[in-house]
Structure formats: structure tokens, C-alpha cells
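Researcher: Let's do a round of design. I'm pasting the C-alpha cells now; please hold your answer until I've finished.
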């Protein structure tokens, strides 16, 4: 959450309430020097909290306009997740599990149709992955494609916009995996089995069970990696260390390896 006590938090709050701002306008609003603002912006940009683009208007060289990223917006109060969970529970109580499953299945079918339409005409794996990343990013997954040294490709998703819904109903996760099951068998996947939004450390048994669920949908040959569902940047180092140990121990438990 944004506390507005530190200069960086005050800067984020200004961008949230006033929209895109130039470096000079931020310096005036914060009552600090332009170099001081530049230093704050550099740190926030490195943390993925702000982004810039040339600001139109005026005479001469365009100034940079700074705005919040999706990651920064997540730090502000938002009741969408609470509303989603409430709606899920209302459907479950009033209409039953079958109706909830029908809603989830409809979402899966709609997503599958949208992806097929968006990927139509893409000839190469690179083009298809880049289009898929654009489609997933538009849905809030913050997806990007990276080239691998062996000439392969890596599709990385840095955010889960359905996290709250998935916690309330595991059907969302299952149908999400089933969408990826439709990909070519030669495309291997990594699955997030550590929840970085919760400071409580998962037990190895919980991690192993999450891997097992993913394998039951995708098949063991499709899963190449297991990892957190996002980065550890917002967690204390001690919490991140415990979660990483749980990840390794849970993977080993799933594979039947002895503790060591």
C-alpha cells in the first residue's frame, strides 16, 4: 500500500491522482530539486513502478512524461478482487457448483476463441508467441517473450489477474491450464506453485500437491519448470528465502527425491 510518507510514495501518489507528469512538474509538486526527482524516478523505473514516454506539446525537445505501471497500480486500494470473490460465492450459494463450473467453462471457451482469432495467420512460433503475449497482457498477465540461447523462446507472465478468483475456486486454475494444454506438444511450460502475495510459507506437501494438479492437466512431459507465481521483490528477504526452500523441497517431494 502507498503510505505517502516517503518521497517515493508521495511521487507515486501524485502520478496516481494527477496522471502523467514531467520531471519538472513532479519536482514542483514535491518541492525538491529536479536531480532529486530524477534519482527517485530512476529507482522506481528500475523497480518496474513507473515508465516514461515523450510528452507532446510545447516548443523544442519533448519532455518525458512519467506515469504508473500496472505493478504500481496494484499498490493502491482496489476492491475488484473482493467483488469477484463475492460474486463467485453468490453463484455457488444461489445456483450451485454446476452453475459456477458452467461460468468458468464459458470463460475458457471465450478465451480460446479469442486466442485462435488473434493468432490466425501467424506463420512462425516467434510471431505466434508475441501475439499471444499481447493478448495475455491485454488481460492483465503482463506477458512478454524472451529469446533463449538455444534459439528457443520463453513466454513469461509476471502477474496473475485472476489470483483472487482462483483462490476462491480452483476451477479457474484448472481451466487456465487446459487452455495451455491446447498448445503444440513441443512447447513446454513452467507453472507457478508459490504464492508471493501471502507471507505464510507453503509446506513442501502443498507445493508437491500443486505440481501434481498441474501435471494431471498438462501431463508430466509438458512441465519443464516450477517457480513462484511472480517475483519476490515485495517480500522480505527472510520470507523469500523460506519460500524458495519450500519450492525446492516440494519439487523434490513430488519427484520422490530424499531430503538433503
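Researcher: That's everything. Go ahead.
Model: Designed sequence:
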Amino acid at each position: 500500500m502507498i503510505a505517502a510518507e516517503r518521497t517515493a510514495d508521495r511521487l507515486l501518489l501524485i502520478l496516481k491522482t494527477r496522471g502523467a507528469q514531467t520531471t519538472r512538474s513532479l519536482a514542483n509538486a514535491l518541492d525538491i530539486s529536479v536531480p532529486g526527482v530524477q534519482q527517485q524516478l530512476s529507482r522506481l523505473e528500475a523497480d518496474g513502478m513507473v515508465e516514461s514516454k515523450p510528452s507532446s506539446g510545447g516548443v523544442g525537445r519533448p519532455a518525458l512524461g512519467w506515469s504508473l505501471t500496472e505493478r504500481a497500480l496494484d499498490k493502491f486500494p482496489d476492491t475488484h478482487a473482493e467483488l469477484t470473490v463475492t460474486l463467485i460465492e453468490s453463484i455457488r450459494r444461489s445456483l450451485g457448483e454446476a452453475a459456477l463450473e458452467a461460468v468458468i467453462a464459458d470463460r475458457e471457451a471465450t478465451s480460446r476463441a479469442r486466442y485462435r482469432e488473434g493468432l490466425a495467420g501467424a506463420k512462425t512460433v516467434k510471431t505466434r508467441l508475441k501475439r499471444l503475449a499481447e493478448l495475455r497482457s491485454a488481460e492483465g498477465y503482463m506477458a512478454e517473450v524472451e529469446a533463449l540461447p538455444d534459439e528457443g523462446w520463453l513466454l513469461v507472465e509476471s502477474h496473475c489477474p485472476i489470483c483472487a478468483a482462483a483462490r476462491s475456486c480452483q476451477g479457474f486454475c484448472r481451466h487456465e491450464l487446459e487452455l495451455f494444454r491446447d498448445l503444440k506438444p513441443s512447447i513446454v511450460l513452467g507453472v507457478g506453485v508459490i504464492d508471493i502475495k501471502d507471507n505464510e510459507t507453503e509446506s513442501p506437501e502443498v507445493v508437491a500437491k500443486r505440481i501434481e494438479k498441474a501435471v494431471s492437466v498438462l501431463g508430466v512431459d509438458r512441465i519443464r519448470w516450477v517457480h513462484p507465481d511472480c517475483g519476490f521483490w515485495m517480500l522480505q528477504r527472510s520470507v523469500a528465502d523460506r519460500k524458495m526452500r519450500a519450492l525446492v523441497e516440494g519439487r523434490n517431494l513430488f519427484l520422490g527425491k530424499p531430503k538433503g
